Amino acid sequence: MIRLNEIHEKILSYNPDADLDLINKAYVFSAKVHNGQVRMSGEPYLIHPMEVAGILASLKMDVPTIAAGLLHDTVEDTWATVEEITDLFGKEVADMVEGVTKISNITFNTEVAKQAENFRKMLIAMAKDIRVIIIKLADRLNNMRTLEHMPEEKRESIAKETLDIYAPIAHRLGIYWLKSELEDLSFRFTKPEFYYRLSKLVAKSRKERERYVHEVEHILTETLAKEGLKAEVTGRPKHLYGIYQKMEKSNLDFEQVYDITAFRIIVEAVKDCYQALGIIHTTWRPVPDRFKDYIAMPKTNMYQSLHTTIIGPKGERVEIQIRTRDMHTVAEEGIAAHWKYKEGKLLETKEDITFRWIRHLIEWQQDLKDPESFMQFVKVDLFPDEVYVFTPKGDVIELPVGATPLDFAYAIHSDVGNHCASSKINGKIVPIKTQLRNGDTVEVITSPTAHPTRDWLRIVAASKTKAKIRQWLSKEEREESRKIGRELLESEFTKFNLDFSKFVNSSEIHKYLSDANLKNIDSLYSQIGYGKLSPLQTIKHLIPIDKLKEQRPQTDSTISKLFKLVARKSSTAVKIKGMDDILVRFAHCCNPIVGDSIVGFITRGRGITIHTASCPKTIELDPERKIEAEWHAASNILRPVKIMVTGMDKPGLLAGITNSISTLGVNIIRASVAPDRNQKSTLMFEIAVKDIHQLREVVNSISKIKDVTNVERILSGEAP
Ligand code: MN
Q1: How far is the CA of 75 from the centre of ligand 1 (A)?
Q2: Planar angle of CA 526, 527, 531, nearest 5 degrees
Q3: Would the pTM of this model clear 0.70, i.e. be above it?
């Protein structure tokens, strides 16, 4: 067990002015609250935070991090609270302890390999402070070192989690020894047969192998220097898991792999690479077929190096990579597939940049005279653009920041999104526009009747989601256009007193469809609905024009029935001063609707005609016949009103407008479309409205439609 003064010594070795009081205080507190607790091994619990602090000191971490390491399990496992830790040790330490506690409470389900990357990112995003991750890694390392004390059934899953989540994080942070040790420890519990076979075969201890590596490093450097070549030589003994991976990946026998030690030679220029290779090949015997020139023939991921294997200075196989400093940067920092080559520059993903930055930070922190200044850089949002949330099953979903449960629903499946009715975050029902936070568990409640609306586009953050919603809406619009087209055509038939149903299956229609290059009758409806074809044109194609003229348009269509209904009710809608139940009619010139200021004019034999107060006609009329009029307060008649919409001639415009009118519960009596020059079109609608407020609603909602440039009420009875 590591002792407190050993931790002190470690810290003082790289930070002579360290505030050891904080360490001592954290030690005393941790000892107090963990008192009486024992680990699985039967040892006092305190050993664990002490070992974690020791590992953090080996990583040359700052004093607050080591103090947080001593305290990392106090909130989770004892009566201590975050408030108490804040009071005693300050916010900086308390935040780290809280961060570690939060991460420890997440359970990762790594059954699906592709989830692992998301788990790692979520963990880092939740930590909010790189030091929290480093404490967590130290915690995991100590737990792995003592894994044999855990119940057998738990070992494998912990080891697997370490392999999937924590070792890759250590790797990306550039802490290679920590990564190797985590992997070897995990290897021992996930693949015990291989582990023990390999460790028996790699007879030399790790220490021996390290000594061997140093010796060979020295020999290689000297040999190159003798020929006047300045080179940086580094070697690393392969760890057991690395050997195992290599065997698996290259399908090699143990004998072909186990004694291979890899060395890297970094030189100034490309020509030096070949010179170094020449020197090495003349000094030691190369293994046949092992030389590869990735400088002349770079790998697709831009990787460049010379590879060779020699029978080395000690008679063992030695793998050597020779490269320049630039090639080295590409090899180390470019995670293969993420490198792209554009405009002569290497592009890396934001994630690569983030991790490279952390790696440099950690490297740099090792050499800092004042490790405290490390501080100002560690508290940054590492993935500011993403948010990671859980499905109820424990899978992690990555979404852009600002994402809502609706984005989540679409990320699960388009069908889930298209029927999203409501959502729960962490078990509570929330509006579907609620912004998600890292670590939320999100659940979507679907309903067969729920469907996307244009508003949804405003409450989602992912462009993928928007595309899916738009896709649904435009499909709906097509369907709507088809319906409208059919209605328009049918009412045009009715207008000419023709039987629509007879024509639907007539040979004329089929001929017309093939002439017009239309697939079927539905495409005809759609074309009419989109305003590409007019119903009148269609009829003229189907019926000889002279025959058409013979038919007198009649007015008893469904629509005119509605119109009549509208008109019939109108007599009781208006109050005329001093008169009861007088017959009124509404002037066609201005078409008053409920809410307009109105005046009446007495007409001989036809009762009273109601005009709007602003109607130009009223000036021409005899002022002596003028009579005051107003709407009944409770008048609930529908009045027809004409509106003219101008907009860009785009498919779906008519459908969009019709849709927005019907959404408001307003009936359309008549609609016509006239595309004109300049890609513009003019659409006329006659609609039945309750009053002026409803008309305003309609106008507002139409003017919000994309591609609509103007909406106005037409007062004149004649359409322009
Ligand atoms: Mn712990």
Answers
A1: 11
A2: 110
A3: no
Amino acid identity at 218:
H
CA of 154 relative to ligand 1 center, distance in Å: 16
Output the CA 48–ligand 1 centroid distance in Å.
Answer: 7
| C-alpha separations of 176 from 172, 173, 411, 502 in Å | 9, 8, 35, 81
Residues in the 5 Å CB sphere of ion ligand 1: 73, 139
* CB contact at 8 A, 423 and 442: yes
The pLDDT tens digits for 476-527 are: 878 877 877 887 788 778 777 777 887 777 887 888 888 888 888 888 888 8
Residue 578 parent element (H or E)? none
For residue 70, report the distance from its CA to the centre of ligand 1, in Å.
Answer: 9
Residue 139 Cα to ligand 1 midpoint, Å, equals 5
Q: Which pLDDT band holds residue 323 (cuts at 50, 70, 90)? A: very high
Residues 6+ apart with CB under 8 A from 46: 30, 31, 34, 35
Is the per-residue pLDDT at 592 higher than 60?
Answer: yes
Distance CA 76, CA 101 (A): 6
pLDDT in tens, 349-360: 555 666 666 666
Q: 3-class SS at 402?
A: coil
Distance 137 CA to ligand 1 centre (A): 10
pLDDT at 333: 54
136 C-alpha to center of ligand 1: Å? 8
Closest CA to 26 of 1, 44, 4, 2: 4
Look up residue 697 and give its two tokens: 């609603």
Catalytic residue numbers, as ranges: 76-77
Res. 459: pLDDT tops 50: yes
395 Cα to the center of ligand 1, angstroms: 24
- What are 657-679's pLDDT values in tens digits? 888 888 888 888 888 877 676 77
> In this structure, are residues 50 and 70 in contact, taking their beta carbons and an 8 Å threshold?
yes
- Looking at every residue in the chain, the average pLDDT score rounds to 81
| Location of structure tokens 């030091």 | 131
| Exposed / middle / buried, residue 698 (Cβ in 10 Å: 0-12, 13-18, 19+) | buried
Exposure string for 404-423, b = 16+ CB within 10 A, e = fewer: bbbbbbbbbeeeebbbbeeb
Distance in angstroms (rounded) separating the CA atoms of residues 208 and 220:
19
**Spatial distance between the Cα atoms of 211 and 161, rounded to a whole number of angstroms:** 32
Count the helix, strand and coil residues of the chain and give each as a percent rounded to the nearest 5. 50, 15, 30
